[in-house]
Design goal:
5-stranded antiparallel β-sheet; elongated; 4-stranded mixed β-sheet; alpha+beta; 14 helices; 13% strand; 617 residues
């Protein structure tokens, strides 16, 4: 059982080396030092509706002025997976060079191009660019709804002039902001040809902010006091749940099991004469091998790999690899670490499968390798087809797909096979503390609340309530404009999640065995699946509801783009503050209620056990 240590060390070293090599995505500015008049790389990335950040398109899918020499930036694997498609922008922002109303081009927009721009303005399209690896955003136009009740009376305007404000410290770029000129508008209301003069202004200002702190402003939104209060309140609530569960398990272990063990150890003859009840009645069936043991072992191997992947991601996050807008770093790390940890999945699955006296270990390895990858591949095929149909940047190029297939073929699969061979050759044996009977006992009829579905719901509720708030912020970061940077708090919540899951698993398993139901292997697995399902579905729905409430507010300004955009009137911040307050209060009360219910059940069971022991005595 000590062989996985070598695998762990090798994988850890490979992950750290690979992450150091691939996660640092740089611009063409090499060391980011410039002299006066030097060109600073500016890349246009993508455009898309503000209320659906996952829907993005190439910048020049809209009829902007195209530079004479359009250059596409060579992107890393993580950048492509992230949907980044960087091309040279039509603006030239040379270092320390101010410009006043610099003309980009004069263009006559056709009716079709006007309609395309008007559709983008109607959906609150924004653009994203990168200047010396600093992200910048801006809206394309605005909709004038003031004093107009009928949508047919709305006026649609395109911004034709933008103002760049760039801050520098000696020979480095520190900050950049972009604002549209509210007085330089083009009317897109009517379907007719329109002449547009696109232009821009550049202003350079000196600042004392050091280069090392230039990315801090992008992470400040997640560290605001009211956000931190929400995070810490969630952690306190989770800790209270852990304490209640600890007391609950201590009650079971100290009051019930200890007494039974002492009685059986000191008075075996008396114990043999008494009629066995509860978990003692089925002690010869508890360690009977589960059905579909190959699939069970494969699920265990895949789960161990994903757990290891999560630990490595946390390590990289805590050491500062995933700083804000390090383009594609997370996706690169996920692909590389998953490929390098496949040996852990093969070893765990094959070793456990052989302990369960399985013989077809090759089929077990094939099942282990496809258990996670096959559903992921089918989901990817569907989503990629939809993205290709809509010409979105989420569609992966053919070359990227080939690279991922090669990684899976040349790295993931060989490591999976090597791990499987090592697991098969391990001398570990399944050693049950009691002898398993030849024929399984019949499971007595159980009340409805001891069925699989109620147990799954109960098993998933407490772990979900422990991480619910943090999960919301993660979803808002993945599918929204928020930035998540407080990985230390996330790691604390992850530890609490592990503790709560372990406690609730032990408790529910004990109750199941006490009801003389010895088929506990898959019940626990289904409970984990239920937790994962609730994990994503409920949180996803809550996030969508909040975004629908947010998107129903008339658009004029947003503060999530770090103060770079501000039009005539301001959109209030998201309804997150009040919504989360109600959510936390509800889940805190429900979590404490369920924990108290479990404690009450344990007290009742102790009382019943005491009465039974007295009557048998």
């Amino acid at each position: 059982m000590k062989k996985p240590t070598g695998w762990f060390v090798v994988v850890l070293a490979a992950v750290l080396l690979s992450s150091a090599a691939v996660t640092k995505v740089r611009s063409d500015g090499s060391d980011h030092r410039y002299k006066a008049g030097d060109p600073v790389p500016l890349y246009a990335n993508k455009v898309g509706p503000f209320h659906n950040p996952s829907e993005t398109y190439r910048y020049f899918d809209l009829p902007f002025c195209v530079p004479d020499h359009l250059k596409e930036k060579k992107e890393a694997l993580g950048e492509v997976l992230n949907g980044d498609r960087l091309v040279s922008a039509p603006y030239k922002l040379d270092f320390l060079t101010d410009k006043d109303s610099e003309e980009i081009c004069k263009k006559k927009l056709t009716k079709e191009e006007v309609a395309k721009f008007r559709s983008a303005v109607t959906k609150d399209y924004y653009f994203q660019m990168y200047y010396d690896d600093l992200p910048i955003w801006g809206f394309l136009g605005k909709v004038d709804k003031e004093g107009k009740a009928d949508p047919s009376d709305y006026k649609y305007y395109l911004f034709k002039h933008v103002q760049f404000e760039i801050f520098y410290n000696k020979d480095r770029v520190i900050e950049i902001n972009v604002r549209p000129d509210a007085n330089a508008l083009v009317d897109l209301t009517e379907d007719k040809d329109v002449n547009v003069d696109f232009s821009y202004t550049v202003r350079w200002k000196e600042t004392n902010t050091p280069y090392e702190k230039r990315m801090e402003k992008y992470s400040q939104s997640s560290s605001l006091p009211h956000h931190l209060e929400i995070h810490w309140f969630s952690i306190i609530n989770s800790c209270v749940t852990v304490l209640l569960l600890t007391g609950f398990l201590a009650t079971i272990l100290m009051r019930v099991l200890k007494n039974d063990f002492v009685k059986y150890a000191h008075d075996e003859e008396t114990a043999d004469d008494q009629e066995e009840t509860g978990w003692k009645y089925i002690h010869g069936d508890v360690f009977r091998f589960p059905k579909y043991k190959s699939f069970f072992a494969a699920a265990l191997g895949s789960g161990t790999q994903l757990f290891t992947l999560t630990i490595f991601i946390f390590v990289l996050a805590l050491v500062g690899v995933f700083y804000p807008y390090n383009r594609g770093a997370l996706f690169t790390a996920l692909v590389v670490i998953y490929a390098l940890t496949s040996g852990i999945a093969g070893y765990t699955a094959a070793s456990f499968y052989c302990q369960l006296e399985g013989t077809n270990w090759v089929r077990n390895l094939l099942l282990t390798g496809s258990l996670f990858c096959a559903p992921l591949f089918l989901t990817f095929c569907f989503l990629n087809t939809v993205a290709i149909f809509y010409n979105a940047t989420a569609a992966l190029p053919f070359g990227t797909i080939v690279v991922i297939v090669l990684i899976w073929t040349l790295v993931t699969s060989p490591l999976l096979v090597l791990g499987g061979i090592a697991g098969k050759n391990s001398k570990a044996e399944f050693q049950a503390p009691v002898r398993t009977t030849k024929y399984p006992r019949e499971i007595p009829p159980l009340p409805w609340y001891r069925g699989t579905l109620p147990q799954m719901a109960m098993a998933g509720f407490l772990p979900f309530s422990a991480i619910y708030i943090e999960l919301y912020y993660i979803f808002a970061s993945v599918w929204g404009h928020r930035i998540y940077t407080i990985y230390s708090i996330l790691f604390i919540v992850f530890i609490i999640l592990l503790i709560v899951t372990a406690f609730i698993t032990v408790a529910l398993t004990y109750f199941q065995l006490a009801a003389e139901d010895h088929e506990w292997w898959w019940r626990i697995s289904f409970s984990v699946i239920a937790f994962s399902f609730k994990f994503f579905i409920v949180s996803g729905l809550s996030f969508v509801v909040d975004q629908l409430v947010y998107s129903s507010i008339p658009t004029a300004c947003t503060t999530t783009m770090h103060g770079q955009i501000c039009l005539v009137s301001c959109k209030p911040h998201s309804s997150l503050g009040t919504w989360l307050a109600y959510a936390m209060a509800s889940f805190s009360c429900l979590g404490l209620l369920v924990s108290g219910l479990l404690c009450s059940l344990s007290v009742i069971y102790i009382a019943q056990s005491s009465v039974s022991s007295v009557s048998f005595g």
